[in-house]
Amino acid sequence: MKTKITILLCTLMLFVPWTILPLRGFDWALKSPVAEIMICFYAVFMIFSGIFTILAYQKWHIKGIWMQLCVIINGIYAAGGLAILLMMLPGRI
Fold first, then answer.
1. Which of 9, 13, 25, 80 is 20 to 30 Å apart from 62, CA to CA?
2. How far is the C-alpha of 15 from the C-alpha of 17, rounded, in Å?
3. Which of 8, 17, 5 has the alpha carbon at shortest distance from 73?
């Protein structure tokens, strides 16, 4: 049961970062404070989902083809989220 719930969570985390696209269609989402907060939130979530998926695969030994795919995609998301946060850092200093 724990394995299936973890795989379901990792699968759902694949699609959450794409929800930013419909949100960016609103005018309020393009203004400075809201846009920065939203991008930071999504970047932190992407990093969290990458770490969670890698932990589930390595430490909890939840293996399988689908889990390998989740690790790869969420790992790419985590690297992208880290890059986004690092690119935002010079503007804050």
1. 80
2. 6
3. 17
